[in-house]
Specification:
The protein has helices at 3-42, 52-87. The protein has 89 residues and is an all-alpha fold.
Length: 89
């Protein structure tokens, strides 16, 4: 591989690493929002436990948890791409 292509490949890897860092921040934000929503749901008075509001909050927590764990797949995928690119000689 010539220098130009190696430099382009290194730039691509750097962009992926930067994107991964940004996505880790997004994952942390999702987790913080989920924790806040969960605390708000758990803080509802008992007579709200069977209301639409409670079920909406409960669904929100579930969706945020799913999004959080999906971010693990995204981050793992980026790691795999970087690993493959780093094998290029």
């Amino acid at each position: 591989m010539n220098k130009s292509r190696r430099d382009a490949l290194k730039a691509a890897i750097n962009k992926l690493e930067s994107a991964k860092s940004d996505l880790e921040d997004v994952k942390d934000t999702i987790d913080d929002i989920k924790d806040d929503e969960e605390s708000a749901r758990d803080g509802l008075e008992e007579h709200f436990s069977e209301t639409d509001r409670y079920y909406t909050m409960d669904n929100n927590v579930s969706c945020l948890e799913d999004a959080y764990y999906s971010m693990d797949d995204v981050l793992s995928g980026i790691d795999e791409v970087i690993a493959e690119l780093e094998k290029v000689e």
